[in-house]
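seq/struct pair 1
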Amino acid sequence: MSKVLVISGSPSPTSKTEMVGDLVAERLAEYEWNAAHLRIRTLPAAPLLQADRSDPAIAEAAEQVARADGIVLATPTYKASYSGLLKVFLDLLPQFGFTRKVVLPLATGGSTAHVLVLDYALRPVVQSLGARHVVQSLFLLDKHLDCSSGRPGIPPESTEMLDGVIEQFRKALIAAP
């Protein structure tokens, strides 16, 4: 059974992005994948900002990445880029921290004008970390995410797209050596 780590880079405890990460983890668990969800905002701030890998919480988070076969990166879009919180976390990983891993980048945002954040900002960082395979990314509009019930309500057309990238991710994990 492959291990998948969903990493949410939102600083908000009521984040739509984080709820999408939960949904992805649940969908992968339906296929009997071992899926965990790391919420970067819950890590201690000072050690995170100082890239203090000796801090127990930071060391455990880095170890979760190391043990994972697949990584799902879920980020809100801020100022036409992925979150600084996610960047700080990715910066503390070893240079080739995603070696032999399959990665699924996801982003949420208020405008389709920011859809390229995935390909022009996040993908190069993921590639520099040595990812074996980066599957097609997905950008979800905030207006399509209704989280008033505590769970993401996603319209059918967005659900189909999300299901499609999850399936691509799953197939890439199965094909991984």
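seq/struct pair 2
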Amino acid sequence: MNYMKPVLALTIGAVAFTGALPKVGAEAIVNDTIVTLGESLSSEQQKWVLERMDAPEGIEPIITTAADEEKYLGDSVPQAQRGGGMYSSARIKLTNGTGLDIQTENVTWVTKDMYANALVTAGVTDADIYITSPINVTGTSALTGIMKAYDQTAAETGIELSEERKELAQEELAVTSEIGKTVGQEDVAGLMNEIKAEIANQMPETNIEIRDIVIQVLNQNNVQLSEGQLDQLTTLFENMQQANLDWSAISSGLKDAGQDVQAFLEQEEVKGFFARLFEAIGNFFKSLTN
């Protein structure tokens, strides 16, 4: 798989590090790249992850611990979903005006859209992110590592995640986890994405208008929630509204995050296009042999 684009690189991974790279003269940022590694990987697993990331020489990874996960995720993610260890890693490349592009490997619980929604809410709107692990994991360690890395490199990167926005991201993860029990983890983040985009489009001014938008998106997706779940969603977006988030930036950051290549290829018009393309190519080569 091709996980990388030829753009400015800022790389982050949340998997353990105990000396796989030299520390003499090492820097936290090398070639616009940052690597964070969790504390649970063996030496062999560290090497596998770093090679998978194509980590630059001379970099000193930021270590992600269980205490960090408690700090950045708090009560937002059920303990059962934290996996009991720090394994998942993420490579992040800073981009400009492209939104978020996220790829995952061996991650079983946090979906690409869940990463995107939480990161955009926290203040990360432009990046190419590759998340991996040598074993199947839930993926919460990578999210923790990304948050920590942005915090520790804010002076160098100029990207600062406010405490208020990080708390909103935690709240969003908690609500996403709860709603996911009803609509499924694969669909819930896309639903959150749509609500954000609709709020950016309609720019509601009152709590009632926010609730109406939530109900509108739910109806469009044929989703039925309990009154309590509807209240959770409404309260979350009310809190976001009160935080004066830049909804246009959020919408822009999510514009590509919810798109799945396979879903795109399965669209009838796309399949028809490729069928015509392959037929034309076939006819061309036939003409060469006639």
